[in-house]
Structure formats: structure tokens, C-alpha cells
Amino acid sequence: MSSDAVVSLESVSKTYATGAAEVHALREVTLRIDRGEYVAVIGPSGSGKSTLMNILGCLDVATSGRYELNGVDVEDLSEADLAAVRNTHIGFVFQQFNLLPTLSAWRNVELPLLYAGVGRAERRERAQQALGRVGLAQRVDHRPSELSGGQQQRVAIARALVTDPALILADEPTGNLDSRSSEDVMALLDELHTSGRTIVLITHDLEVAAAAERSVTVRDGELVDLDGQAAA
Amino acid sequence: MSTPALRAPRVRAGETLGIALESVRTHRMRSLLTILGIWIGIASVTLTVGLGQGAQQKVAEQINSLGSNLLVVSPGSSTTGGVRGGRGTATTLTTADAQALADPAVAPDVAHVAPVRTTSSVLTQGTTTWTTTVTATTPDWLGVRARTLSSGRFLTAADETTAAHVLVLGDTTVSELGLRTGVGSTVTLGGTAFTVVGVLAASGSTGTTDEDDLAVTPMSTADQVLGSTTTGSVSSIYLEGASGDRLSAAYQEAYAALATRHDTSATTTTGTTGTTGTTGTTGTGSTSADFSITSQQSLVQAATATSRTLTILLAGVAGISLLVGGIGVMNIMLVSVSERIREIGLRKALGAPPSLIRSQFLAEACLLSLAGGILGLGTGYLGAAVLPSLLDQPVTISLPASFGALGVALAVGIVAGVYPASRAAQLAPIDALRSD
Hints:
The structure holds 2 protein chains of 2 kinds.
Chain A (H helix, E strand, L loop, with lengths): L4 E14 L2 E14 L3 E5 L6 H8 L7 E6 L2 E2 L5 H11 E4 L11 H11 L4 H14 L15 H13 L5 E5 L7 H16 L4 E5 L2 H4 L4 E6 L2 E3 L8
Parallel strand pairs in A: 3-8, 3-9, 6-7, 7-8
Antiparallel strand pairs in A: 1-2, 1-4, 4-5, 9-10
Helix pairs in contact in A: 3-4, 3-5, 4-5, 5-6
Chain B lengths: L12 H14 L1 H37 L5 E6 L3 E2 L2 E2 L10 H8 L7 E16 L2 E10 L3 H4 L4 E4 L4 H6 L3 E4 L1 H6 L9 E4 L2 E9 L4 E2 L2 E2 L3 E5 H7 L10 E6 L5 H15 L29 E5 H44 L1 H9 L4 H38 L7 H28 L2 H6 L2
Parallel strand pairs in B: 5-12, 7-9
Antiparallel strand pairs in B: 1-13, 1-14, 2-3, 4-5, 4-8, 4-13, 6-9, 7-12, 8-9, 10-11
Helix pairs in contact in B: 1-11, 2-9, 2-11, 2-12, 9-11, 9-12, 11-12
């Protein structure tokens, strides 16, 4: 395995037991994403796309198969260890922004650093840098309710960047935004990619997916190439 | 990156407390209502225990004001036609008994002896009359009963031998008779003129008896003036032990001496009960004893036991209100957990380990309870300052009790917070993030 692989999934399956029936959300998925890649994961709802995103984000663990994130085998990790892996290696951008409404922009951005055990002064400095990076240097003390949707998502992107993670996982980042803000956010992701970030974009929108260099499609829990055949 | 950073991040306790404090602050109304439960609980526990301790102290002070190291010998019951009367109905104690007990050879641990015979008599001063308790006794009475004089002198040995017509009056008696000067006045008792030689300093009332309404006169004078039927017999004999730790020895000596004089079979068996100061008649085989000895200690014990029972009862009721307050904290914390599922999920996604989520919620519960505890204690102290003047009842709040109350508040917070906190910690981040 090359050390350049940020994501390496090997025959990963996920089954949920709902009552007597077993639901195969993911079947034998194999996927490799290298450092610096910008990959879109496309799929309609119910395709297993969300399950894939949860497993990629270490929010859930696979039933079988092997997943290495940035060289860390996340199989059989405890909840606390998974939390540490998420904290160190992944930056999340959610459709719902998921900012804490009572905290100002920089206090939202510093949260991952807080859980990483970084001291307060350094947290503030790094949070302000990240907010500057997304063009919100003038808004560090604003609460989410005082910001537009696009600005809120940019705060969320700043939060994803602040720990300097190996992987940025964006789950429908434009799903709650108007077209102008969407363009804004997509331009920002493009820019991050250009500066060398590894980005996985999860979406059902082919237009949004077009921004990525490479697309993979999930259908019925399997990865397919654009011809609709099972990917190697 | 082949060396993964898998060590769980360390977050300082101060940061956790800060997050908890912020959460308390941002949900002001909810926090206040939660605090209120603990507030009321701690305030009522503090006040009831304070009231109880105040009452105990008051009772103890009152009893101690009767005299320290005091033993009281009372006559036993008289048997009339096979029916036993109550304690004190017999007139079996005599001045001779008192003299015997005063003998250091008989009872070396008894320091002072004051036989007392009380009768209710009318005092007259000019046209004013007043019925009071005339106490015939010896000069030792003053010390044994731990009384002091506000003016004049007390009875002397010379008064006793000459059967002088002198009186020492209580504070209340002086004012009821309308005496301006007190000492030097002439008061008529049983048709005989008496000179007031001293006035006792006020000592307050013990329950129903006014300790300041009395007239004290020598035993010999009373024998002459107040009828002959009671001559030689006394209502009770007050004994003062040489010291506090020799009181039980004094008790045994007095008991043995009186038992011999009164020809009672039970003498030694009852001696063992002397340490707790129980009455002589409770000893085995001593039913024939025609006297009983009560110690001050036993009175204090009985009285404090009563008020302690009351305190426990009240504190129990207050404790229930504290319990209700604790359940309130748990309830609010559970509501808070389900209200903040998204927040918890997000924090977990961003790398907060379960232990940190748990301590965050636990810290929040503790903060709320501690705040309630401090406010409750403040209210308790305020009550302790205000209530005594309203209720005429002392309230004593001790420092250890205050710390105890805070400890209880904290414990309530921990107990009430554990379950909600572990529920929060166990939430799966995806489920939490998904909920809307």
C-alpha cells in the first residue's frame, strides 16, 4: 500500500439488522483516494452513499473489510480512539452546517482544537487564521444567527480546516444554499484542492459533482463506474 | 504518516468546566428553575437543622442554669390503702437526711447540700398581696442552684441558727409586690413581718415555672412561721457534686446513704445506673425505695433526645424536598440531553471522546446543584439572622453543617447527573447528527 493513499477501502461491507431482515447497505466496496485528490461520491438517496460517508468519516464502522485512513487501520478501535482519529485526520462539512448557535464564529472553529488539547491562545490564533482563509476575518465574533447561509458554511469549512486534517469530507455542502452561495462554497473547495487538500465530496447533484476531478457512483451499495458496471 | 496519533486528546478540567458554565449561562431560565429545587431543599434542611440545634442548645442552657453538677433527691411515692401515689407524693425526706448527706464521711463527693421545702404562701406588702412559692432552704442553695444576687445578701448560717425573719426575693416577686427598693423593705408572711435582705438576679423561666417568682427563707424560720405539720420534712434535696466527673460517685454515695437511712433493701444494684444519672427507683429490686435521685445530666439527655427526635423528623421532611430537587436536576439534565442531541453528535464528530461528553454533562449537573446549594445556604444564614426575632426561637447553623449541606448538594448533582451524562456519552454521533 502506497503511503500516498489517504483513503484505502478494501472489500468493505456494512449490514444493518432491521428486525429479522438484514439490509446490505454496502457490499464489498473497494476504493482508494490518494493525497491531493478531489473525489465526488455520487448516488441517489438510499444508494448507500450516506453509509459510505459515515464509514469514511469514522462515524460508523464496517461490518467486514478493511479501512485504512491516512495509514491508520480504524478496525476495532474504541469509541474514544475513533473520536481521536476523527479529530486528527478528518474535517467535516455538513449539509446543515452544524454550528453551535450559542458560540461565536471563532469559538465554533476552535472546537476541534479544544478536543485536540490545544491551549486557548493558540486555538484562538489558529481559528482566526482559518476564518481568514475562508474570507471571514471580519466576522470572527459573529454568531451563526448573524451570518448568511453561505457565510455559515464557510465558518464550517474553516472548522474543517483548522486541525489541518488529511481528509476533508463534505456531505452535500451546498444542499441548503442558494445558487450564489453554492458557487461561493464550491469555489472555496476548488481553491482548497488547488492548494493540495484531499477532498471527498458527497452529493446527489451531478452538476456539483462535476467540480471534482474524479467521480465514483454508489448504487445499491456497490461502487459502479459511469458505464454502470461494478468497479474493479 | 505511518505513526498515527491515536492517543486520546487531553482536555483540561478547566475547559470542561468552562463549557458546562457556558451551557448553564446560555439556558438561563432552565438553569434557574433547576437551581431553585436544590436551593429550597438546602435552605429548608439548613434551617430545620439549625432550628433543632438552636432548640437543643436552649434547652441545655435552661437546664444548666438550674445549677451545674446537680443531683436532685425527691421523695418516693406514698402508698395509701394499697394505691401508690405519684413520685414526690410522700414526705419521706427530712432535714436529717440532708444533714447526713452533708457529712463528708458519708458522702465525700458531695460538695454542697441544700434541702428545700416549698409551700405556696401569700406575701403582703401594704395593700398589695401576691401568692408565691416560699422556698425554705439553707445558705448553700444559692451556689447549688447557680443563682446570683442582684442586690443585698443571701441567707447566712446565722439566719438559720437564729431563725431570723428574713427573705430573699426573686425578681418577679419584687415587682409584683410593688417594692421600690427591694432590700430593706418589710413584707408580711403568715402574719409575721419579714425583712427583705436580698434580691436574686433574674434567671429566666424554664418551661412553665417562673424561676424568678419566689421567696427564699431559712429552714428554721419556716418551721416556726409556716405551720408545724411539715416540720422536718423537705420537698427535695439538692446536691452538688464536687466536680462534674465525680457526679456519679456522689450519686452512688447519696443513694447508699439514703438507702441505709430509709432501710431500703436495694442499695448497690442501683449504683451502676448512677453514671447515666437515671433515677434510683429504676434499679432492679429497688421498687421499695421511697426516694429517687435525678441528675441534671439525665434531664439534659431527656430534653435533648426529645428535640433531637423533632429535628430528625423535620430534617427528614426537608431531606425529601432536597430529594425532589435532585430529581428535578436529573429531569432537566435528561431534557437537556435530548434537546442537545445534535450538539452532542457534532462535538463527538469533531473529536470529543465519550468520557469528555460525560464529564461535560456531569459538570453541568454539579454546577447547577452547587449553585443551588450556595444559594440555599445563603438563604439559611439569612433565615438564621431573621427568624429568631420572629419566632423567639434560636437558630444555630454550624460551620460543619454548612459544609455538609454543600457536600450534599454536590452529591445530589453527581447522583442526578450520572444517568443523563452516560446517556449523552453513549449517543452514536451519526444518530445524533441525523436528528432534526
